[in-house]
Amino acid sequence: MLFNHAPAAVAYTFDEPNLVSSAGLVPMMGLAQKAGLPELAQQKITVSNTGADKGANPGAKIASLVAGMVAGADSIDDMDLLRHGGMKSLFDQVYAPSTLGSHLREYTHGHVKQLASVSSGFLTQLGAQAPLLPVSQPAGNGEDMVFVDIDDTVIEVHSPDKHGAGIGYNNVRGLNALLVTASTSQAAPVIIGQQLRRGAAHSVKGADKLIADALAAHRRLPGQKAPVVLRADSAYYSAKVAKAARTGGAQLSVTVRMNAAVKKAIAQIPDNAWEPIKYPNAIYDEDSGQWISEAHVAETDFTAFSSKTKCEQVPGRLVVRRVPEKNAKKLAAAGQDSLFETYRYHAFFTTIPKAVLSTKAADTTHRQHAVIEQVNAELKAGPLAHMPSGKFGANAAWLVAAAMAHNLIRTAATIIGGKLARARALSIRHKIITIPARIARRARRLILHLPVEWKWAKHFDRLWATTLSPPEPSRST
């Protein structure tokens, strides 16, 4: 695309009071209000009871934060996205970033817990607007299952004065966000649990409690009767995590650490038990620095946490994937020549019966745990790019608001359907939300004039019709 005017022939001026840059916020916030976000926040959050006027109107202020994040705000200053042109003609109670920041700074640990309850209730109501976690008929590859994934990520901060900031597992100064998501083979992940922790927190700290709350939140979603599997990496290989999954009615699929018991179990697998497995897409192996396209898998019976008391031990399957060792340094150190093949082993423990998922299917579904990394990446490239305050409570509340914004976008994508149903938040934002519009008034109605030849106009129509159409009149019987 080429600019086809002389520079002197083009000018600009910021003087149009009826323009908005994010017309998609109209159906998005219509959906949020339909799901009761302002009412839930107003009812449950008691920050206004502290006596400070900064805590007033939590319903409208939390809705403003979510709206700003949906529109692309990645810092508290970016909340000015909501205050331009004709936005006040479309929305009421549009707050300045300074007001929203002051509101967040009033949050204590208890208020953050209240906001988390709002998030859970909001997700339940969003689930009534669209089928967020649809499943298929069982075909042996987990199509009929809901996968709950847990992972943590370090949100980088640049000031050591931020409350709770510390050096995390990746040697980066930051705050630690623990997330729990739910997804299916047909649906992108929604966030069903979140918690902000100090930057130096161990991954598994408090994970069992968050898992219990997240599984309860999942059960409250309408129509959720499918079997649930909790997936996690080796940081969460813990008896407490296993108990939380079992108590919440979920099967477990967790990567194991290569301790003596695991190595002994792997050594006892006979050579003829290994099955070849090919990956449709090659997998990058960080240890060898190469792309792996084939491997072998096998399994054996295994009792997890055998050093614990009898009631904490969990019987199940140890599924092992082995790949040929390609690291030249390791081969040389082992004194290995070309007559012998050496392997690296990656194992995970699962309680899913073999009759439900075969060895290969269990391996495939467990590796799909990486889907939660996409959620981490989207949040860190969006609302979590800049934590808003030096106060821990404010940042913890910001994380919860980011989770609500994510779930709102995912619900809108589900309503739209088609290729956008599983599209990234950035794609939804560019195609549906940040559409410029000119506001006109006719016959006591506001009319948004959107760009002609907008490729995703039909998708926008579908979202608008679902979220803003008047309710059907009740029929008397």
UniProtKB/TrEMBL annotation:
<dbReference type="InterPro" id="IPR047960">
    <property type="entry name" value="Transpos_IS1380"/>
</dbReference>
<dbReference type="Pfam" id="PF13701">
    <property type="entry name" value="DDE_Tnp_1_4"/>
</dbReference>
<dbReference type="InterPro" id="IPR025668">
    <property type="entry name" value="Tnp_DDE_dom"/>
</dbReference>
<protein>
    <submittedName>
        <fullName>IS1380-like element ISCgl4 family transposase</fullName>
    </submittedName>
</protein>
<feature type="domain" description="Transposase DDE">
    <location>
        <begin position="10"/>
        <end position="464"/>
    </location>
</feature>
